Amino acid sequence: MRIDAVFSGGGVKAFAYLGVLESIDKRGIQIERVAGTSAGAIISSFIAASFTIDEIKKAVHELDVKLFMDPPVLTRYFPFTKWLFLYFQMGIYRGDKLERWLTMKLAEKNIHTFKDIKPGYLKIIASDLSLGKLVVLPDDLKEYYGIDANDFSVAKAVRMSAGFPFFFMPQKIKGKSKTKSIIVDGGLLSNFPLWVFGKGNSYLRPVLGVKLTEKSTGNGTNNITNALNMFQALFLTMKKAHDMRYISKDEEKNILFVPVDNIEATDFSISEKEKQNLAATGKEKADTFLEKWPR
Questions:
Q1: Measuring CA to CA, which residue among 158, 156, 259 is closest to residue 216?
Q2: What CA–CA distance (Å, rounded) separates 3 from 165?
Q3: Is the dihedral of CA 93, 94, 97, 103 positive or negative?
Q4: CB 36 within 8 A of CB 11
Q5: Which pTM does this prediction carry?
Q6: Catalytic residue at 185?
Q7: Nearest Cα to Cα of residue 234 among 160, 181, 166, 158
Q8: Nearest of 106, 103, 8 to residue 49 by alpha carbon
């Protein structure tokens, strides 16, 4: 069976996707087109690059996610300067190591730019703060920035989508004007882009949405003690509210909800046991859902 799939963002919680993919593979389901936001964009890029589930699991488990915390060298000697970088560069960590890792892994499958991927088979969601628009990559590159998608790095597009505000320094891309656009995490405007492949009867093939959710019922509170906390809480609130309002009752039957809790999206100190638990939860929920999925 062939399907299209959409993966939500979720930071390190996306280790749950390893279990989901294992369950999908076990049932002989083949993913054709794929889309995602942030961490979901990382998984989507690997699928579009024709990585097998075993190859994805190997790549992810070999990775020390703490390496993604790459502050400017100056902060090692003068820790207080991280706040200067936060103010002037709009983030604490550069995100360069994330992009280099993605570039290296995708190159193993000879994937460099979007010309190396079948047209329409990978869609990555990002947010352009300068234009005030949601951006679908590679679709919007030509219209918004005058850039040929065939020349644009897939790894860079994924890094743009995964630019968690204030945590990673945002990417900048030159548009049709002299002003550079500030690009951040796609989750700001659509953390779960289920709409990207069509709607209702316009779907080319069955579309499976995989959404990481919290077990809580919404009564939890954000601990806000400073401006950074407030902006992070603002971002997380927008991510939760936008897509939950979009999901209709009719579409819920095609959405695999994977509850994950007690782990922050940017907790790069996550333990191996926590990674394994996330993967186990993903597989358990996927096994149950796919057994009854009406398609």
A1: 259
A2: 32
A3: positive
A4: no
A5: 0.83
A6: yes
A7: 166
A8: 106
Q: Which span out of 33-42, 176-185, 241-250 was modeled with the highest average pLDDT?
A: 33-42
Tokens of 279: 């993967």
Encode pLDDT of 50-70 as tens digits: 999 999 999 888 776 666 655
Amino acid identity at 120 = G
Write the CB contacts of 206 (distance below 8 Å, at least 6 apart in sequence): 1, 3, 4, 254, 295
Q: DSSP of 15-50, one letter per residue?
A: GHHHHHHHHHHHTT-EEEEEEEETHHHHHHHHHHTT
| Sequence letter at residue 48 | A
Q: Per the structure block, which two tokens stand in for 204?
A: 């080319």
How many alpha carbons fall within 13 Å on the CB side of residue 139?
A: 13
Q: Which residues pair with 260 in a beta bridge?
A: none
CA atoms within 13 A on the CB side of 38: 28
Please pick, among 127, 128, 181, 185, the residue that the annotation labels catalytic: 185
Phi-psi region of 11 (alpha: psi -120 to 50; beta: other; left: phi over 0): left
CA 155 to chain centre: 12
Which one of 38, 127, 161, 190 is the catalytic residue? 38
